């Protein structure tokens, strides 16, 4: 269990921890000289169960609330410390608000300096504290009068803490490891050591972790869990990690960084949250208000983009997006605290819903429905609505990262489809996948009706018509499914419904039979349209019209104006380009020219055509074959 103090300055938090544990707090020279706690102090003690309980002593001075926040995240139980002679003070209220906003599960109250007041004053302070707690989640929390120097009341408080050990919440030990770094130092002979609270997962000696947001890969050389040497540490423990990595120093890591499993490294600057403004605020929170955002030990600045209305009233809750000025690491359910722009006042708190919030369309009904689902519960509770609103499907890798839940641990809705794409799997609601397939067919039907003389659009044009919102890889998977099911057919690069045909007239068939040998005679160097017309003794306009119609039928491809290649010839040229790439790793114009045995100008025209149809991608004066190209498969065949 991890216990943290909270309360006003000079109310006896450090002395109370020493009285409970018999161990002097971790006090720095400046703190000892000034008689106050400035930074986090840590003590570990056996309360009587044979294990070590971690105590975090946080500063009470208003100037050091950011340090208090760094220690308060991840607590199992908070000790709200109120001096009986002073009673409830400003930092008592602010610290209590922070504990509520962070979702700390349990709270006990220690009424310190009880030996300095009479019974009437002690009763009054009891009443004041109970009234303070009454409106929040800690209503009815037990109060324990104590006098730390003399030990009065300490045994009773220690017994209450020991009883609470059996009721500590279970942390997520199955997910990826997450540790919020709150201290960094160097140990002679060992090197860099960091300490922090493990939020989830497990870590063992020899494991590799990612320092986020920086992205550096580090190895765990040794570790301590709850101040004891160990081979494994897990969620819910105070952990010290001795790290090794390239050019690693204490300057490489800072308070607020995270050490996470590789799969969780995904820094983000936009997060969608459920935001609550404290009831005691004097005015509404306006859209785009600048704030300080605290998560774990991290302190960032950013702005609040309200998603429901233009302002938020004191005590109210609403969906919002936090647009941050630096990258943040977080997962669904994390608790954040928001302070004002000057970092002098706590405004409210938030629960993280989606760490990968969109920059556009963030207020659409579809997106708000997804956020409402995320607001209601965890992965299983949210998935049906998330799938129902995701026309482009859901990336299971992002979901695993968003919820820190490995995919094998999920219970998917019965109607979920797993679609494999060229950039990884996607999850779809079966109804949405079928609707997307039908949109392809409907778009082609409309195209055929409006342009009956054309065989059909190519795949990129069909995407623009029927599914512009789909990412390319998902669209290609959808297209492959439609073709496999016979909903569509392809003729060369053209897509059409199975019963759609563009037919040549008898005269056109006769002219085609005469010009086709001329087009194929010099495989990679067919005649221009005007030369074909002259050779056949036909009007140039008539020949051009037929060539364009054959191109629509998928039998020819127009490389440049008035220069048409039979499909087989262009596929053969593509095959030569593919061979060159396999041999040299790149396609160079000179090598392509030599392979085809034609002039440089004509070879460049063919290469530019291959670029346009999506077979190759140009990089300066060189090219590579696109791995997702349908032409690549045709050339291989």
TrEMBL record:
InterPro entries hit by this protein: Beta-barrel_SelB, EF-Tu_GTPase, EFTu-like_2, Elong_fac_SelB-wing-hlx_typ-2, G_TR_CS, P-loop_NTPase, SelB_WHD4, Small_GTP-bd
Molecular function in Gene Ontology: translation elongation factor activity
Annotated source species: Pseudomonas benzopyrenica
Location relative to the cell: Cytoplasm
Cited function: Translation factor necessary for the incorporation of selenocysteine into proteins. It probably replaces EF-Tu for the insertion of selenocysteine directed by the UGA codon. SelB binds GTP and GDP.
Phylogenetic lineage: Bacteria, Pseudomonadati, Pseudomonadota, Gammaproteobacteria, Pseudomonadales
Domain Tr-type G, first and last residues per copy: 1-171
CDD domains attached to this UniProt entry: SelB (cd04171), selB_III (cd15491)
Protein name, as recorded: Selenocysteine-specific elongation factor
Pfam family, one: WHD_2nd_SelB_bact
Entries under SUPFAM superfamilies matching the protein: EF-Tu/eEF-1alpha/eIF2-gamma C-terminal domain, P-loop containing nucleoside triphosphate hydrolases, Translation proteins, Winged helix' DNA-binding domain
Highest taxon of the lineage: Bacteria
Predominant location category: cytoplasm
Coiled-coil parts of chain: none
Keywords: Cytoplasm, Elongation factor, GTP-binding, Nucleotide-binding, Protein biosynthesis
